[in-house]
Amino acid sequence: MFHDRKVIVVMPAYNAAKTLRQTYDEVMAQGLVDLVILVDDGSKDNTAAIARTLPSVKVHVHPANRGYGGNQKTCYQLALAEGADIVVMIHPDYQYTPKLIPAMVGMIGNGLYPCVLGSRILGGYALQGGMPGWKYAANRVLTAVENLMLGAKLSEYHTGYRAFSRELLETLHLADNSDDFVFDNQMLAQILWHGFTIGEVSCPTKYFPEASSINFRRSVKYGFGCLATGMSFRLTRWGLARGRLFPKPARRPAGTPARP
């Protein structure tokens, strides 16, 4: 709990058996989390079995893999059904440190932001943590283009460490988003479309064999998906197109924080 608000951590999981327990232990050590919801997306290892042995963890299993975006859709649906006021999404691969949960929850719970991202770019942690140079370069270029198209000033759009207020999640129509990796980008574009503000905290990350990562081919597909999302956002804003991701009426006044 944080100021009488229920805090739920969601973990979209796929073959995370080797790192799940370490991630979980650090999540619970923060002392704020009421419940962890792990959605296993058709893993081929014993991720779900390990999760069922952990206290305060609710496990949901997709019999077949639905994709990273499809996994998150289930995560947020279950969190809202459990009465979450603040939802933190973190991967169970221990790439992102759970030690930032109090900071991210506090920023939402104290009414500063309805969405907070753990940024690998702020503080220069990405390369220090082992991010491949080509991924870092692609991240920076994509982020610069997206900031232009979406009218924002984020340090990155591609982190897998995020926190949201209940109001924000109830506002977005996430079912319209992709079931693939571009879901993350579409979600941030929708948040900006509806006029919510986004905060960021500097987040150390680790790259190692067990940490999840998409290959070059899927990274290229993801990059083009991000550009398509930004273009749809801009054309819809100009009234030159109509996209289901960005419905009318448009957003609340720019720069006005939504109530967390």
Write the layout of secondary structure elements.
Elements: E1 7-13, H1 20-28, E2 35-41, H2 47-51, E3 57-62, H3 68-81, E4 86-89, H4 101-109, E5 115-119, H5 125-128, H6 133-150, E6 162-165, H7 166-171, H8 183-193, E7 198-202, H9 216-237
Parallel strand pairs: 1-2, 1-4, 2-3, 5-7
Antiparallel strand pairs: 4-6, 5-6
Helix pairs in contact: 6-9, 8-9
Compute the gyration radius: what is it? Answer: 17 Å
- H/E series, N to C? EHEHEHEHEHHEHHEH
CATH architecture: Alpha-Beta Complex
Structural classification: alpha/beta
Query: What would CATH call the homologous superfamily?
Result: Spore Coat Polysaccharide Biosynthesis Protein SpsA, Chain A
Proportion of strand residues: 5-15%
How helix-rich are the residues, as a percent range? Answer: 25-40%
Number of domains: 1
Largest sheet: 7 strands, mixed
Number of helices: 9
State the low-pLDDT regions, or none.
Answer: none
* CATH fold-type name: Spore Coat Polysaccharide Biosynthesis Protein SpsA, Chain A
Count of strand segments: 7
Report mean pLDDT, rounded to a whole number.
91
Q: Largest beta sheet: what is the strand line-up?
A: 3-2-1-4-6-5-7
The first-level CATH class is given as: Alpha Beta
Distance between the termini: 15 Å
Shape: globular
Question: Which descriptors would you attach to this protein?
Answer:
260 residues, alpha/beta, Spore Coat Polysaccharide Biosynthesis Protein SpsA, Chain A, 7-stranded mixed sheet, 38% helix, globular
